[in-house]
Amino acid sequence: MQTELDKKIWLSSPHMGGAEQIYVDNAFATNWIAPLGPNVNGFEEDIEKYIGSNINAACLSSGTGAIHLALELLGVGLGDEVLCQSFTFAASANPITYLGAKPIFIDSEQETWNISPELLEKAIIDRINLGKKPKAIIAVHLYGMPYKIDEITAISRKYDIPVIEDSAEALGSVYEGVRCGSFGDISILSFNGNKIITTSGGGALLSKDKLITEKAVFLATQARDNAPHYQHSHIGYNYRMSNVLAGIGRGQMEVLPERVNARKSNFMFYKENLSSISELSFLEDPKGSSSNRWLTCVLTSSFESRERIRVALDNENIESRPLWKPMHLQPIFKNAASYTNGISEDLFKKGLCLPSGSNLEQEDLERICNIIKRNFDD
Ligand SMILES: *Cc1c(COP(=O)(O)O)cnc(C)c1O
Questions:
Q1: Which of 91, 186, 213, 237 is the right S-S partner for 70, CB 3.0 to 4.6 Å?
Q2: Mutation test of ligand 1: which of 92, 171, 189 has the most ligand atoms closer than 8 Å to its C-beta?
Q3: For domain 256-374, is the CATH number 3.90.1150.10?
Q4: Residues whose CB falls within 8 Å of the CB of residue 217, separated by 6 or more in sequence, listed in order
Q5: Contact 47, 199 (CB under 8 A)
Q6: Is 210 in a helix, a strand, or coil?
Q7: Which residues are within 8 A (CB) of 300 and not within 5 positions of it... i.e. 6 or more apart?
Q8: 320: Cβ–Cβ under 8 A, 6 or more apart, which residues?
Q9: Residue 102 and residue 336 in contact, taking contact as beta carbons nearer than 8 Å
């Protein structure tokens, strides 16, 4: 029998608000069991209202699909080079290869853990000198922390290379009063099961340019030309979001502000309760930034120390996870070019994501902190 003591605690689990079921039932009641319908339109409007900045949204079947379409819409094709933050989840980089293009990985800076403006500019100059100007930049707000938006945007304008803003982990994060998801030439969101809100699986492509989101919907629905028969002048995809799942999304949008607050409170709790341990540290919001704290990350002083905490938590049925392994260290990308400074490799060695769900109870957080503290007593 499972007692309270060994109840499984997940890293980040879905957290329904209640209204999701009503929207899903409505899809059934009206027979909109299809990858289009009122919930898809309604969810897109909810996202546009929430992000602001006159953004347009196209709901898709995944964040990965959204990055794939973003790259295609920016004209990335066979043999092109795309600059991509190395410290990220593989889904940021994989779609580059779907198009026969090559990822060039860029390491991080210390202040936000995201793409380093210095290395990015160095890479651009180097690639241009080597004879090929990169086609796009993929920058990521990792764990919800906004990247150096002013610096990255300035470099993008200086060299006229568009930015894909990977906001998969950053719905609800804010930079200088403006919501993440509105800073890229094209931006993307994810509603996968572990994200800040979820549709079980899903994503969105965002742009201030309505032509871009219209083209995304066109490509996502098999690129059908305007004709009474089915006619195609482009290769299309089947990437649109289901109207059933969009119903979950509409319900989740009603509780998104609460979910962001709960994640931020988790971070505050960990910081306050673990700050007595001198070897542990947390990434603070730089001035002007407010991370949604999708996952709370703690930095230890060594690989051994990080593993000690991870294994101790695992032994008590608590899921934690090392920070993302940088793409330039992944076996599949061993032949990709990269511009590195050791920062993401060090973060990967020493950092751990702690359970961060918006549905964690106070007693769960206390249990986690007590186990971690116990490991630093001796
Ligand atoms: C989750 C995630 C994605 C991919 O989104 P899916 O909806 O799971 O396909 C892309 N980039 C980052 C940084 C993510 O965390």
A1: 186
A2: 92
A3: yes
A4: 58, 240
A5: no
A6: helix
A7: 279, 280, 306, 309, 350, 351, 352
A8: 11, 309, 310, 313, 314, 352, 353, 354, 355
A9: yes
Q: Which atom of ligand 1 is nearest to the CA of 64?
A: 9
CB-based pocket (< 6 A), ligand 1:
62-64, 88-89, 91-92, 140, 166, 168-169, 190, 192, 203
CA distance 276 to 266: 17
CATH 3.40.190.10 fits 20-253, yes or no: no
Count of CA atoms in the C-beta half-sphere (13 A) of 343: 19
pLDDT tens digits, one per residue of 247-305? 999 999 999 999 999 999 999 999 999 989 999 999 999 999 999 999 999 999 999 99
Q: From edge to edge, which strands make up the β-sheet containing 81-85?
A: 56-60, 203-207, 186-190, 163-166, 136-140, 81-85, 102-106, 337-339
Which atom from ligand 1 is nearest to the alpha carbon of 62?
Answer: 7
Query: What is the DSSP-derived secondary structure letter of residue 324?
Result: P
**In the chain, domain spans:** 20-253, 256-374
Q: Which two tokens stand for residue 222?
A: 């098999």
Tell me, in angstroms, the distance from the centre of ligand 1 to residue 174's CA. 19
75, with CB counted inside 10 A (0-12, 13-18, 19+), is: exposed
Burial of 279 (0-12, 13-18, 19+ CB in 10 A): exposed
pTM: 0.97
Find out whether 295 and 11 touch, Cβ atoms under 8 Å: yes
Which CA distances in Å does 71 have to 45, 97, 304?
24, 10, 39
* Alpha carbon distance 372, 370 (integer Å): 5
As a whole number of angstroms, the distance between CA 10 and CA 360 comes to 9
- Measured in Å, residue 168 CA sits from the centre of ligand 1 at 5
The Cβ-side half-sphere exposure at 5, using a 13 Å CA radius, reads: 3
Q: Is the dihedral of CA 55, 56, 61, 65 positive or negative?
A: negative
Picking from 28, 34, 22, the residue whose alpha carbon sits closest to that of residue 59 is: 34
pLDDT, one tens digit per residue, over 125-174 is 999 999 999 999 999 999 999 999 999 999 999 999 999 999 999 999 99
Q: Whose CA is nearest to atom 6 of ligand 1?
A: 63
